[in-house]
Recover the amino acids of this structure.
């Protein structure tokens, strides 16, 4: 009989369901103490952020509770915490600072313990413990996550946020020789962009400054203001440093463990191995031009004609090398948050925008604001435009769809009608459409189809669309559920408008019934085979991840149990 390395090392617990606190099978305190000793004292007890707002500590911690309540919708509270995540839907109001009249503050979906990851040994020890003790695992860096992959009821969290190493060096391999950056899993974009700029380089990254560079972002594909210049973040990966679920410390690159490298480059977050660091191409820095503008809805007919005109213009604008845009609108105004023209001049950018602005004028639309600029470095441009305002405030839910040029060319009327249905929904007035337009065709990027696991629909997309709903910080659970249902319904409006398309998995819904096709497309079967190779017992499990429905499923208690 062949015994796999996975089972030979860890003697995996084969129980039907994962253990939860209170079960007879839950590890004893001495078990947890021994784990803590094994990993050098890096075990952290999970605590809800709002615990100071509940009895019996509320009288002693009243000032702390007030501070937490004031900052509850700010991302800063969450990415420096080992177990709490930004989405109130996934926190499920288990311990909200606005529900202090309730008698208890429970853990709910928050991890019970977290391991402060310091290197491969702590990860390997945590993986071994969780599998032997039949504990659910979760992986958290910052907690920027709309689909519930960074937490889990009764889980042991691997907290990678403190892996902050960052090195610029010359990389050499058969496929690429040139400048590169090796970044630890805890590096965020506000750090990466500045550190790269100080060394004379740019690096592909996201719009939101506090998102982590190495985790779900790049593993989900990763778009950003430089994508039209260099491709998706996953197109720029050179190698990953990982720990597999059987405890091996590996390098995944085009020449080492190439199947794992392929899967990690766009095939979904935290599902194939635990990533400790990423090595990615660095690009020479240089001047960057930028722009922003806005116009208000003072006349509905004119306004929607202006939105349609932007879509027509975008088909041409998106063919301009190194030009990307972030924009959005609701029923009151349209705004170009930022246009980025890498290695371009202010005059060139103004020239590219002029035909559209002339069209607005012919429609009788007057700009409410218009700004253009030129900076010596990309990082200075990024800082000037605040890129865009932090979208990961906790009091919002998001869905999305990739929109190809064929939709604009063949059914722009239907697309505009869907937009109007959303932004004019009186039951959910705090809604907004937002989008990122980048050109990541294989011709632009310079790679071949199938060279990584990025959803193929990205290569044909004109932009990635987001539909979002904001809500009050103290919104109760039934309202959060209603918001999620509405976002799902809105996301579904765009499916018939984009046949054969898909959505950016990091900015979409967790319960899309077509998630395999929409988030992975033709790559799904290959990704599943890689998942089974590197994680045959499905120790790593997240919503909408490859293999989610193959081994474990959530029961009515929030417990992971074997698929029947």
């Amino acid at each position: 009989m062949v015994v796999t390395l996975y089972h030979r090392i860890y003697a995996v617990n084969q129980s039907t369901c994962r253990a939860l606190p209170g079960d007879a099978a839950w590890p004893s305190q001495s078990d947890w103490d021994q784990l803590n000793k094994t990993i050098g004292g890096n075990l952290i007890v999970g605590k809800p952020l709002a615990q100071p707002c509940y009895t019996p500590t509320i009288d002693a911690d009243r000032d702390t509770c007030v501070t937490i309540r004031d900052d509850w919708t700010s991302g800063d509270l969450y990415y420096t915490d080992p177990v709490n995540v930004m989405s109130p839907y996934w926190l499920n109001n288990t311990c909200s600072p606005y529900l202090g009249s309730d008698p208890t503050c429970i853990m709910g979906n928050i991890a019970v313990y977290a391991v402060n990851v310091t290197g491969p040994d702590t990860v390997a020890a945590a993986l071994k413990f969780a599998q032997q003790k039949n504990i659910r695992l979760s992986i958290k860096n910052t907690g920027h996550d709309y689909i519930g992959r960074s937490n889990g009821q009764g889980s042991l969290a691997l907290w990678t946020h403190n892996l902050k190493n960052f090195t610029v060096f010359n990389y050499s391999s058969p496929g690429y020789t040139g400048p590169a950056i090796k970044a630890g899993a805890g590096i965020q974009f506000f750090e990466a962009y500045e550190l790269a700029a100080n060394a004379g380089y740019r690096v592909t990254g996201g719009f939101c400054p506090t998102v982590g560079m190495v985790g779900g972002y790049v593993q989900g594909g990763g778009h950003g203001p430089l994508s039209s210049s260099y491709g998706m973040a996953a197109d720029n990966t050179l190698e990953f440093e990982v720990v597999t679920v059987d405890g091996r410390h590996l390098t995944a690159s085009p020449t080492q463990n190439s199947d794992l490298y392929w899967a990690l480059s766009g095939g979904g977050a935290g599902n194939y191995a635990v990533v400790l660091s990423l090595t990615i191409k660095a690009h020479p820095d240089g001047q960057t031009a930028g722009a922003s503008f806005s116009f208000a809805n003072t006349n509905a007919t004119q306004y929607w004609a202006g939105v349609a005109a932007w879509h027509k213009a975008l088909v041409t604008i998106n063919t301009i090398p190194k030009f990307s845009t972030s924009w959005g609108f609701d029923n009151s105004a349209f705004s170009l948050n930022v246009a980025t023209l890498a290695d371009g001049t202010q005059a060139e950018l103004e020239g590219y925008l002029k035909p559209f602005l002339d069209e607005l004028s012919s429609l009788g639309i007057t700009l409410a604001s218009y700004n253009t600029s030129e900076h010596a470095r990309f990082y200075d441009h990024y800082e000037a435009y605040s890129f865009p305002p932090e979208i990961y405030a906790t009091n919002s839910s998001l869905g999305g769809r990739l929109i190809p040029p064929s939709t604009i060319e063949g059914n722009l009327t239907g697309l505009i009608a869907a937009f109007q249905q959303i932004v004019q929904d009186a039951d959910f007035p705090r809604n907004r459409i937002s989008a990122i337009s980048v050109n990541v065709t294989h011709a632009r990027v310079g790679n071949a189809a199938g060279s990584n696991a990025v959803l193929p629909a990205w290569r044909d997309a004109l932009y990635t669309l987001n539909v979002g709903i904001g809500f009050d910080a103290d919104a109760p659970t039934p309202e959060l559920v209603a918001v999620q249902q509405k976002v799902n319904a809105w996301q579904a409006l765009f499916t018939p408008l984009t046949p054969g398309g898909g959505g950016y998995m990091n900015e979409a819904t967790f319960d899309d019934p077509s998630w395999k096709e929409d988030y992975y497309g033709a790559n799904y079967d290959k990704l599943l085979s890689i998942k089974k190779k590197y994680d045959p017992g499905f120790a790593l499990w997240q919503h909408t991840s490859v293999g989610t429905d193959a081994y474990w499923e959530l029961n009515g208690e929030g417990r992971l149990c074997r698929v029947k």
Notes: The longest helix spans residues 405-423. The chain has three domains: 5-162+524-562, 166-284, 288-521. The chain has a mean pLDDT of 92.
